[in-house]
């Protein structure tokens, strides 16, 4: 079945506007491995691409140059093989000679895919690209699209280039995973009739990575799909974890160690604790690695409510990485039915709670829309106070500090039925409100907002305490 094109309206609009402009354009498209960058470009520019070549991890220079020569041969329709260029400067000169043979009355597209792998460690590539742009492409009716999964490499070497390509990027796209809404649209386009509850279950394990979702089968249950993808011998995601980081980062051992450290914490970790748990040296390279992981979408940094930069925390927000470390790594060899068994364990319930909260943090726009406050400026954060002999502790995973003098204090629960508040739970929620209010000394009104799967069974304990209730459907709002 052909893969449907879903979402990406804003990104596609950026690409199409570049076709309509009267100037040459150089567009950087950045996004993690298997998020759909190539699919987006080819869908938008199917009829305009006159040259495309893609890099592969670890390919020697001579092979990359051969592949470049072959790509020009194929696009030009030449019946004869072209000479393999001796350098990247020769390669870009060969591309210029080919493009000069084309009618550029209508804008054409040059597509360089997985540029970090195409360039490798050869400084000559960037010099060649600079020569190509500054001496030829900038004066032509051309769009040059450059894609890369290694976000930090793309930012450092292309977007923030200080040499011949300084300020040459005219447009940039940071392609993110599908939202819940886009994931639902993707499956609906294939006539897969998953419920919203099932979609959230899938999303918690796989995230919104299109290439992962493509492997889901509509005739199988969610449990069967996860079992097949993650625990069967041929499952795509059984060993994706190691490939994922090694493909994106040089010397990825430190990146993986940090991911492992973050997987142990629900509320996030400060840098000092990350270094301790990951057992890595504390130096300037640590900041670089944290930035690379954040730019690539695996972790998220945030400030607890009212805190300053020195109190920054980091959370693991890549669904698949968390799921792998929690379950797949330990149980990958247990065979058929593994996930059906694991989904009945207390460990599963703990994971569900954390993973669902993480999804809610990624869907703040949907939450604000459901609350009718899309137009109200707000800052999202969390709150954590450790219990001491003098102070009672509390943890709040999500707060919305609004400009209209209200703070939404969220309780987030993933259940398979309606939530019924007990007296004990209600008292605990009131205590958390008191601890938070006393700690931050706010005069804003505190509003408890519940996000849960199947809603709230109103009773005497919830009356006057919970001001608004959001369900799964609200997270799917565009």
Quick recap:
The protein has 478 residues and is of the alpha/beta class. The protein is built from 21 helices and 13 strands.
Describe this structure in words.
This protein is an alpha/beta fold. The chain folds into 4 domains: 9-174, P-loop containing nucleotide triphosphate hydrolases (Rossmann fold, 3-Layer(aba) Sandwich); 180-238 and 332-357, no CATH class; 242-321, Winged helix-like DNA-binding domain superfamily/Winged helix DNA-binding domain (Arc Repressor Mutant, subunit A, Orthogonal Bundle), CATH 1.10.10.10; 363-475, Trna Endonuclease, Chain: A, domain 1, CATH 3.40.1350.10. The two termini are 26 Å apart. Helix content is 44%, strand content 16%. A 5-stranded parallel sheet has the order 2-3-4-1-5. Strands 9-10-11-12-13 form a 5-stranded mixed sheet. A 3-stranded antiparallel sheet has the order 6-8-7. The mean pLDDT is 91.
- Counting helices, strands and paired strands, the structural category is alpha/beta
The number of helices is 21
Shape: elongated
What Rg is obtained from the alpha carbons, in whole angstroms?
25 Å
Count of the domains? 4
Proportion of residues in β-strands: 15-25%
Question: Which segments are poorly predicted (pLDDT under 50) over 5 or more consecutive residues?
Answer: none
CATH superfamily of the largest domain: P-loop containing nucleotide triphosphate hydrolases
Main sheet overview = 5 strands, parallel
Provide the helix percentage. Answer: 40-55%
Mean pLDDT: 91
- The CATH topology of the largest domain corresponds to Rossmann fold
Q: What's the CATH architecture name of the largest domain?
A: 3-Layer(aba) Sandwich
Strands, count? 13
Distance between the termini: 26 Å
Query: For the largest beta sheet, what order do the strands appear in spatially?
Result: 2-3-4-1-5
CATH class of the largest domain: Alpha Beta
